[in-house]
Specification:
The structure is a homodimer. Chain A has helices at about 40-45, 65-70, 90-105, 120-135, 180-190, 205-215, 215-225, 235-245, 250-255, 275-280, 340-350; strands spanning about 5-10, 55-60, 80, 105-110, 115, 140-145, 155-165, 170-175, 190-200, 260-265, 270, 290, 295-300, 305, 310-315, 320-325, 330-335. Helix content of chain A is about 30%, strand content about 25%. In chain A, strand 7 and strand 8 form a beta hairpin. Chain A is built from eleven helices and 17 strands. In chain A, the strands form four sheets. Chain A has a five-stranded mixed beta barrel. The interface of A and B includes residues 296, 327, 335 and 352 of A. Strand 15 of chain A pairs parallel with strand 17 of chain B, so a sheet runs across the interface.
């Protein structure tokens, strides 16, 4: 069966401020030493499985030019612009109706655009196996990440080893972000994996599930699908999509659907959820510092510095994140990266929108 | 007796890097909210006692234009340029021979150019009293600072209350920077004051003491004095001054001379020895932060930020000093300000002299 991919790239993530901005979100930034952006790496990673012309990018109008520039190999008509963000279910549905129109049916790989994966070869193997499971009957397949700590920032997926297709285990339930105590129990039980937000299914399977669990969205998607290729395409998309409820595929479908299978990913996944990820991704010095730019350090350790041309002198620092850009500088304790969003709130209050 | 002042402004202090640079040392910076530079404040402070035309500035050629620009009221011929830095004794001697040439004799107030004083009125009163003591016989007078902590960064002066002229006590000895244990004993004994580097004496007194204790320097100074006003003035200065040994007035004269008196200063003196001084000088917020520039703070306390136009976001910080300039940024733990000089060493090693 034809393999396709939908890469979701509409996010406006704030956690990489001040490098990420409303007109330059995280997926379009390069955080690795190879200079490639997150979305470029996401595409490159699946090329052994999916032809470039069968890769779709779901984003919004503001980022269309960024996608074009960073991914010149993706056909123009495969860049799908959501008129407004409505969470993942409508986004995936939009991709599915486009694929249905073009291919009739196909295997559809859904991927976030802003994660990193260390072992691309293992990842491709796992995805390939997931495709086989998805192509059997009406299975919804997801990749789960082996939890190595009780993270409270991820959703968890409970599985049963008793029922399996090859290495894919039956999913018992999706659970939302737990508190620390619950997360500890999950990890200890060895029956939970982290929800990676990566899905594999047939186009027909996901559309059938939408019809069953999100019927109003499904109706709108059908009208959008009918209009593809006509002169009313944009107008119908605008009207129908804007009327959708914002709904995640996790909550709207996966928590209700049957025939869900999960493959445990052991491919060095990182959701790059904060500046701390840079400390994991890049090679540090013997004192644990990860440094970019023109930096002089004295008695400094476990510190991440992302600079530009400006000279940065770090003296006696520990466990800090320093990110300098042309017009804004962040200095943040490593334990406080969650508070970066408060900076953006203050900037909104002060109407300093140029920094957002 | 005519009152004159010599303000010593040749220092190339590194402790206020990156705001202070080799072409813009600390005495020419403004660190107070009034926008006046340290040397401007130093001059302004003594105007109730000394006429502007009787104030001399000892500096070096590199800073002559800075002095002219910041102190347009000082007569051009009162700006004395040392051909090379030779510590305080030759500097003071140079001032003294110029004053001798012009006034015959005068009361000479010697002041550093980079200290701050909170209570100007008390300071002027103390100086005035010091002048009276200096004008009696051949007394060398200094102002000592009431030690409120066992600082190891200052010299100390031991005095005897048994012998006094008014409030000026006889000095028993000058001692160099002590270790912490010794400093604690000094402070506990109530017989020591901090050496402020401010001196008051007659021109004739200091020149007589130079003749007694630094005879070679005195001979050279006489030749320099003889050449003042002649066409050989610059040539003689260059030749004689360059041949001087570098010698501090403390070590070269004060540790050996007789008839030294000290007045205890209680006028809110601050030698502005590091960025920490900004935290003492400027008003902070309720969390102890002292902020300049376009700054957004989240959960940050006891932090000093000196910014420019660039937005600085401080998240979860404590006890840091952040100084941003156009081409260099310093982030320093408050306990590590002494290590800023190591940054400059590294820059010299890396030949990045433009940042010095």
């Amino acid at each position: 069966m034809k393999k396709t991919a939908l890469i979701m790239a509409g996010g406006r993530g704030e956690r990489f401020w001040p490098k990420s901005r409303k007109d330059m979100p995280k997926q379009f930034l390069s955080l690795t030493d190879d200079g490639k952006t997150m979305i470029q790496l996401t595409v490159e990673r699946i090329l052994p499985l999916v032809e470039m012309e069968d890769i779709y990018i779901a984003t919004n109008r503001d980022y269309k030019d960024l996608v074009r520039r960073q991914l010149p190999g993706i056909p123009e008509e495969n860049i799908l612009c959501e008129p407004v963000g409505k969470n993942t279910a409508p986004c995936i549905g939009l991709g599915a109706v486009h694929m249905q129109k073009k291919y009739g049916d196909a295997t559809m790989i859904v991927l976030p655009s802003d994660h990193l994966i260390k072992y691309t070869n293992i990842f491709v193997n796992t995805l390939s196996e997931a495709c086989k499971v998805a192509e059997q009957g009406e299975n919804l397949v997801t990749l789960g990440i082996t939890a190595d700590s009780p993270e409270t920032g991820y959703g968890y997926i409970k599985f049963r080893t008793e029922e399996a297709i090859g290495n894919a285990f039956a999913v018992e339930k999706f659970v939302e972000k737990p508190d620390l105590e619950t997360a500890k129990k999950y990890v200890a039980s060895e029956q939970y994996l982290w929800n990676s937000g990566m899905f594999i299914w047939k186009v027909s399977t996901i559309l059938n599930n939408m019809q069953a669990y999100l019927p109003r969205i499904h109706e709108g998607l059908c009208r959008i699908g009918d209009a593809i290729g006509t002169e009313r395409q944009d107008e119908v998309l605008e009207k129908e999509f804007s009327a959708f409820d914002a709904e995640s595929v996790d909550y709207g479908i996966m928590e209700k659907a049957k025939n869900i299978f999960i493959l445990a990913g052991t491919f060095g996944w990182d959701d790059v959820g904060s500046w701390l990820a840079v400390g994991r991704i890049k090679a540090g010095d013997e004192l644990g510092n990860v440094i970019d730019g023109n930096v002089v350090m004295v008695e400094t350790k476990n510190t991440i510095i992302q600079g530009t041309q400006k000279l940065i002198a770090a003296v006696g620092l520990e466990d800090l994140v320093v990110v300098d850009t042309e017009d804004a500088l962040l200095i943040c304790d490593k334990n406080s990266t969650g508070d970066i969003k408060k900076v953006l709130e203050r900037l909104r209050e002060k109407n300093q929108t140029k920094y957002l």
